UniProtKB/TrEMBL annotation:
<keyword id="KW-0812">Transmembrane</keyword>
<dbReference type="InterPro" id="IPR013332">
    <property type="entry name" value="KPR_N"/>
</dbReference>
<feature type="domain" description="Ketopantoate reductase C-terminal">
    <location>
        <begin position="178"/>
        <end position="276"/>
    </location>
</feature>
<keyword id="KW-0560">Oxidoreductase</keyword>
<feature type="domain" description="Ketopantoate reductase N-terminal">
    <location>
        <begin position="3"/>
        <end position="148"/>
    </location>
</feature>
<keyword id="KW-1133">Transmembrane helix</keyword>
<comment type="similarity">
    <text>Belongs to the ketopantoate reductase family.</text>
</comment>
<dbReference type="InterPro" id="IPR050838">
    <property type="entry name" value="Ketopantoate_reductase"/>
</dbReference>
<dbReference type="InterPro" id="IPR013328">
    <property type="entry name" value="6PGD_dom2"/>
</dbReference>
<protein>
    <recommendedName>
        <fullName>2-dehydropantoate 2-reductase</fullName>
        <ecNumber>1.1.1.169</ecNumber>
    </recommendedName>
</protein>
<comment type="function">
    <text>Catalyzes the NADPH-dependent reduction of ketopantoate into pantoic acid.</text>
</comment>
<comment type="pathway">
    <text>Cofactor biosynthesis; (R)-pantothenate biosynthesis; (R)-pantoate from 3-methyl-2-oxobutanoate: step 2/2.</text>
</comment>
<dbReference type="InterPro" id="IPR003710">
    <property type="entry name" value="ApbA"/>
</dbReference>
<dbReference type="InterPro" id="IPR013752">
    <property type="entry name" value="KPA_reductase"/>
</dbReference>
<keyword id="KW-0566">Pantothenate biosynthesis</keyword>
<dbReference type="InterPro" id="IPR008927">
    <property type="entry name" value="6-PGluconate_DH-like_C_sf"/>
</dbReference>
<keyword id="KW-0521">NADP</keyword>
Amino acid sequence: MKIGIIGAGSIGLLFASYLSTFFPVIIYTRTKEQAKEINDYGVVRKNGSVQTRIKVKAQPIAAWMGKEELTIITVKQYQLSSITEKVKDLETPPESLLFLQNGMGHLKLIEKLPVNNLFVGSVEHGAYKESSYIVSHNGVGKTNVAVYKGDSTVLRELAEVVSPEFPLVVCKNYYEVLVNKLIVNAVINPLTSILQIKNGELIKNQFYLKALKNLFAEISYILNLENQEEYLRQIIEICKNTSDNRSSMLKDIEAKTRTEVDAILGFLLEEANDQGKEGRK
């Protein structure tokens, strides 16, 4: 199975480094310069003190024609519109696309794409892009994927081959997959960004932990969550497992680049507005 990966940020590089062990992979980059560096040096993945150099083919995004059996889209949500327009303009639509974005706003962008198999997913790994071709795998987790439209055969073939080295779990309900990640992102990302702290500090400091619980209560109220204790336990567990990580939103702020706050919190604000809910007293 040939795999394309659109986006050569931390997640794109991470996926390319692992999946290239099993499949022919082409990673599509925003610039010709990054594609050249990946072609020259490969993708270097850091796992603690261990460095692994993996040969990966790279091309600029303009070269993508959707010919691979599966294309994984790892760009940030606010960059998706140009990708979805390109999909619509292709002479032959791609067979299968997997979208790995934070939030849930991208569902409106992908729902009418002329693609047989549309998949969505959430990534629990911690990754940091150190350069155009070097990625640090800081937190080992799994990728949860589900069918949004179409057939799950490609996803199951992928999961069977890459797990357990790079765990990929095929789930039944795409909404649950995205909501679970949305809750985590909506709590951890804004708080760590405002407080300028690593993830673990949210549960080590009693005042930060109180803020975490208050924000989670607001989110639970909007989403009408039934098993709140389990969701809260999951958030706290992720803070522990990624204690030394900076959230993606905090890293964006530190890099003075655009954040995904609209993608992460926009869905919740729309839900609250649709239900006529105001902030909890």
